[in-house]
Amino acid sequence: MEIPVDSKSLPTSPKLLRRVSKQQPVTLPRFSPPENSKRCLQVPAFIICLICLNIWCAFLFIHSFHFCISSPKVDLYCISISTGKHPKLPADIGPAVPGGAAGGEPEHEWLEKEKLMDLEQAPKGPESAQENMKNLSESPEVDRTQESVELANRIEAQAPGMDRNQEPVEMGVREESNRLEGQWGIVAVQSYMSQLRTLAAKGAHVTGERGSCDGRGVYVYDLPSKFNRDLAAMCGDLLPWADLCKYFANEALGEKAEALGPRWYGSHQYFLEPIFHNRIQNHPCRVHDRDAARLFYVPFYGGLDVVRWHFRNVSTEVKDALGIELIRWLEEQPSWRRNSGSDHIFVLGKISWDFRRYDDRHWGSNFLLLDQMQKSFKFLIERQPWEPNDVGVPHPTHFHPHDDADITAWQLRLSAFPRRNLVGFAGAARKEESIRSALIEQCIAATPECRFLNCNDGGCMKTEVVVGLFMESEFCLQPPGDSPTRKSVFDSLVAGCIPVIFNPFTAYYQYPWHLPEDHQRWSVFIEEEEVRQGKVDVVERLRRVPAEEREEMRRYIVHQIMPGLVYGDATARFERFRDAFDIVVDNVMEKLVGGSAGE
């Protein structure tokens, strides 16, 4: 019998594509000396074309290589070997990016060094990374778990004294170097996740008593309208092909989904910013005197700002402008200058990579690369795994309870709901290297045990259809989408469906405050490479999970995890439970009150 693996058996080496440091030599054909002087300059045209074609192919070959930090299928995790200099920002608001590498090293390697750093050297790295770690914990040292220590010792034993930044010469050495770098990267991610989990307040996942507001004031900035309200007013023009105005109904929860119940809405996956903003304005500890505040919330709709420029032909300066204006505005505020923003939080409704444009590509902004953004807590629906102050928070789902009674009623309904399908999968095919096509084929072949809802033909546009599929299924397949994370993971958990994860970056390394570390209690992990190579029948693997084990996992999801994954409505009040919003605010407040924001 095969059962889900524990966290120690997670894949510890994400695929890292090989790097090439030198252009491959081009061997030109040799020609015999001409038999007479009259023909010495006559070279056949096809030979000249062949030479040019050879040189051009070699150029493309070199420029096709990427160094990938986590997954080769996600372009945003990769740095091209041909990447040039990083764009310069205004001198007074520039990111903490090294201008070059010493010793003639390529400039793109600065990211590799920072992200795959030796844990022993982590606190001694670049100043911005050191300040980030100080902001995470009172201790200047990284809390190395026993697992991290064992892995570090194992790596050192396999390659004692190896300089991981040195370009390997032999192919076997290069492969070993890439493997070890991958292990170091995973160790760093696990260490950051461990640090973030230590900041969680009591009952971090679901329940907890309401505390006093003494010394815990929450201040909400009244920003100039261009940073939020004006962006919301552009709802009809944010995307060239869609009107998003209906999603601002009911205080940004979307239109009601009456078929599912009174607390269900057609919420948009990128509307976390207005949802969080509307809720925090009604926080019981909100204060209007900055001197009485301990926590400062900046209601910048940065995700909507990114969305409005995604598909428009504008310069990177235009895409970066609003974020830079916000920083300049904040720097004029005494409350920001007092602790350099370390007691401020930002909630952004897009993935971290959309705010970290490292090169001259036209996608996204550079907002999270700005120097002034390094000390604040950033909450995003997908975190950058190697940024300790990035915290992943759940995507907005369609369930927005108002009080404890709403959550309890939904738990009872889920517990009694019949599960007609063994497996459910709502999704659409992706590019060839994605495992989605393989999963779709396996699911269709296993009908009726596996039910596939094709999102390409509009089948996923209706909230009740998607939620209904998850409610009727025991397991829900959750392969990565355009990025590792997926809103569907949270939709399935809220529906009591056990998620099947294929990439640890989809959930395990993303949400330290909302998803328990012991992932085998609430999910099944199957290595995506096994699926891609046809080594595993996913439906058969899930079929072998005993019924009593499925029931125990579902009970744990419904009663222990689900309440902490949903966002209540704007005026929600919970006593027994804590929703996703409460967990964020309580945990940050615990950090600020228990530690020192100015460290």
TrEMBL record:
GO terms assigned for molecular function: glycosyltransferase activity
Main location: Golgi
Protein's cellular compartments: Golgi apparatus membrane
Compositionally biased spans, kind Polar residues: 129-138
Membrane topology note: Single-pass type II membrane protein
Stretches assigned to the Exostosin GT47 domain: 213-536
Keyword Iron-sulfur: no
Entry keywords, A to Z: Glycosyltransferase, Golgi apparatus, Membrane, Signal-anchor, Transferase, Transmembrane, Transmembrane helix
Superkingdom of the organism of origin: Eukaryota
Region of interest (Disordered), residue spans: 121-147
Homology family: Belongs to the glycosyltransferase 47 family.
Protein name: Exostosin GT47 domain-containing protein
Protein species of origin: Zingiber officinale (Ginger)
